[in-house]
Amino acid sequence: MDTRLLAKNATALGISSILAKSIAAVLGILVTRYLGPESYGDYSTAYAYVGTFILFAELGISQLMVQEGAKDPAVLPRYFGNTLLLKTLLCVLCYLAMLVFMFPAGYNETVRLMIVFVGVAVCFNAINQSIYNYYQAVQKIYLSASFQFLTTLLIALFTIIVLVAGLGVVSITFAHLFSYIIITILLYLALRKEIKPRTDLPHLAGMVWNGLPFGVHRIFYYLFTQFSILILSLTVSNVEVGIFSAAYKLVLILIFIPSLMTSALYPILYQLGDTDRSQHQNVIEKVFKVLSAVGIAGSMLMFVLAGPLMEWLYDGKFNEAIPIFMIVAWLLALECMSFSLGDILTTTGRQMQRTLVQGLALLLLTVLTYALNPVMGIYGAAYAVIIAEVFIFFAYYYMIRKNVYKIRIWRQLPGTLISSLLMAGTAWLLIGFHPLLSASLAGIVFCLAIAILDKDFRRIGVYILKRVTGGR
């Protein structure tokens, strides 16, 4: 295990992901404010629609490449070549399906036009994602992180040009399409001397079969995050879709946090899952502690400051979304807590169990959304998301305790809960100030409290302090 390479990957991934997500968050807020509820409803509908179809272009072979490539780099040319071939064919089929089904869906002309261009954009991005998986397999995550950051930067640059020029919502899709085409060309130039992909058709069917547990889980997982918007786009007005999306997507921006922490660890966790189950458990429990602290604190802060935050971020144009934001804010906490538990199943050869849970959660989400929508409107969709996430967490916990090992997670939470409550009280007392000031001061209280209550967080704080001060 090359610890220096692991540290380089983790650092690059962390910095680039945080910067990229920060840019994407700011850009998303600007686009939302610029478009307003109705046009933003069209925008959210188009992206939820194409995002759903493109999920079926990934049957898990990319993730299988990461798993097998981490164990034996010699198989990578064959896995990579087959991945690119299959992904390209599936992207074409998915795009054709988008065009066919957008008419019976009953979408307006603007949404249909956006689907035409966004569909091509997400196909390019889907192929690029497989290249990022290759970099993950060879533990060069810093390269994939750099390209993904550049993608975000280009999208932001071209989108801002569209906004400054005062163009319509369809023009934003051109910005995304142009950015993905540029990145695809750059990735090709970067890879052509590093690896020569080769197709191995006799083994393709077997690779697809072995990758299906990863692929089906990915479909269920990402479909879960955007299915509420897709259902609402078929049942309520575009204005209501825009209001729900303004709150929901604000939380989804932060869902990258658990995957950010675990992506660099995946090759290591796969190895420990085969060779040292005790060490695997220790690593996962530490990851759970950190993720739960980030998630619970973040959700509680968003819940308390929901009103001031939404009014400030969206210039008062989406105030109807404040109660929805207070509900879906807890998605961050639940996602952070369940993600590391799901990784236990993935890295110990139980991916199908994780897939089963995610599929049942998607079914539960669908039933609850349709059942609650006539009674509670778009609030019902928000509650459905949270109830389904609670199901995921407890289902993972049950499966791990029964089939893997006696994971100890509850002992990790008291310090986090006490610190979060102190933070929430501080934020509530400062709610009349600017939300950034209130959030910053409350965050400082949380950091101080959890460092006092928990030795692991004291160590993290000391490490960060040494890095900031240059080791002094």
Automatic annotation (TrEMBL):
Keyword NADP: no
Protein source organism: Desulfitobacterium chlororespirans DSM 11544
Keywords in alphabetical order: Cell membrane, Membrane, Transmembrane, Transmembrane helix
Pfam families membership: Polysacc_synt (PF01943)
Transmembrane annotation, as ranges: 12-34, 46-64, 84-107, 113-135, 147-167, 173-191, 219-236, 248-269, 290-310, 322-344, 356-372, 378-400, 412-430, 436-453
Protein name (Swiss-Prot/TrEMBL): Membrane protein involved in the export of O-antigen and teichoic acid
Alphabetical list of InterPro entries matching this protein: Poly_Biosynth_Transport (IPR050833), Polysacc_synth (IPR002797)
Record membrane topology: Multi-pass membrane protein
Chief location category: membrane
CDD domains: MATE_Wzx_like
Domain of life: Bacteria
Location in the cell: Cell membrane
Cellular component aspect of the GO annotation: plasma membrane
